[in-house]
Amino acid sequence: MTHPIRHAALGLFALILVVVSALMLERERMGVEMTPLAVGTTPVTLYQMPGADGPAVVVAHGFAGSRQIMLGYSLRLAQAGYRVLAFDYEGQGRNPTPMRGDVTKIEGTTVYLMAETRAVVAAARALPGVEGVALLGHSMATDIIIRAAEEEAAAGTPITAVIAISSFSEAITPSAPPRLLLISGAWEGMLRDFARKAVAQVDPAAQEGDLAVAGDVERRAVVAPHVGHVGVLYSPTAITAARDWLDRAFGRTSTGAIDAMGVWIGTLLTGLVLLFHPMVALLKKGPGPREVPLKRFLLAVFVPASVTPLALLAFHTNPLPVTAISALTAHLALYGVLQIALLHGVGLRDRLHWAAAGALVLWGIGVFGFAIDRYFTNFWPSPERALLIAVLALGTLPFMLGDALVTEAGRGALWRRVLARFAVLASLGATVALGDDDRMFVIMALPVLLAFWLVHGLLARWVARRAGAPAAGLGAGLSLAWVLGVILPLLAV
């Protein structure tokens, strides 16, 4: 099969994946009214069916999440007749207020997030005809909603039911919350054990799936099969259990099968990645790969990885109102500059293929980003994050240019590419180990980088092989600044 035919076949296959999965995901949203609200500076979305008069459910996301990442629950509960209010916590999603307080102390950040949660609960109670409010949260939010429920009960406005997904809250006691469902993914070993112990507080003989009852206290632990910390947010088993728990608490009955929304999200994103490959083949071919001698490659990998953390020991200036961003930018900038210098700029003087760089940015941020934002999690910045993206670009541009050069425009041996990326992660880890408390938050960039290399890194590799390292480095550098700028939580200094 010739290259044009192979590219056309791949493009058609990818397009079918995109169209079918997008139609299935849009079907999940059909009929649900999504109304943007604001509670103070907290952005909220109200999900409900037309004319819905059911109870309210406040939905809270985990650390570095957003309202969108909880769509699996928000849409299905709205379709069951509930009025769902999902919101972005401080410093996350499109919330313009940085996260305040010490995140390591209950009396620090937790207090602010509890107050924010209770403000949304008050907004839920103010909806016309609402009789009762439930709380549902994931990961970090489980501790917040359980503590907020305690405060609501103390104030004489008890929460009807609590659903804690991937929970680790130490605020759970044998008597509170009085009606608690704990959901864990089968691959969340420690959190699954925690859920079992929380149920054992009520009935030591209760097994997973059993309803433990002691007086007015009801508790159950449910396990979603074949999923982990993120997959549990889209598991039909988990979502059905949450809906049934609410129905039990409010005396309602809901029916209807729940589809595997996560499968369609994965299919859509896979299709969008594959669809980019035949598009790159349409670009004018640029310079071939520039071979990097082994000795120079090893220097360009190990010197920046070891020198950068040591050099940044003296870096304590932070002109921004949030922590970690300056340290991360400085790290990436110095790492990239050192790498480019040690490579003697091999390939950097090649003619820049502007169209290829633009295509990478347009697809990685515009098309792929639109799908992420609509179906998975927030990908568009609030105005307050625009400056942070610009600052991050000062580091991500040299960093990704160096990455494109050291991997020989994506054509370097697999072991070289793996070693180069491992060195980056080790270097960031060393910066955290050697730095002050603020730099602890640099560690948050590690999973973001891994996800970026998995998706955008593949797109950049295709561009590099077709149009050269400068185009790939420029496009990937701008894309990385955007990704870090919209996903990393903002933490007040």
- The N- to C-terminal Cα distance equals 58 Å
Widest β-sheet, arrangement of strands: 1-2-4-3-5-6-7-9-8
* SSE-based structural type: alpha/beta
Number of helices, counting only DSSP H or I runs of 4 residues or more: 14
Shape: globular
* H/E element order: HEEEHEHEHEEHEEHHHHHHHHH
Task: Describe the overall structure.
The chain has 493 residues and is an alpha/beta fold. The chain contains 14 helices and nine strands. It has helices at 3-29, 71-79, 106-125, 140-154, 189-200, 236-250, 261-280, 294-311, 325-342, 354-375, 383-406, 414-434, 445-467, 469-487; strands at residues 33-39, 42-48, 56-60, 83-87, 133-138, 161-165, 179-185, 211-214, 217-224. The chain has a nine-stranded mixed sheet with strand order 1-2-4-3-5-6-7-9-8, sandwiched between helices. α4 (140-154) links the parallel β5 (133-138) and β6. The protein is globular.
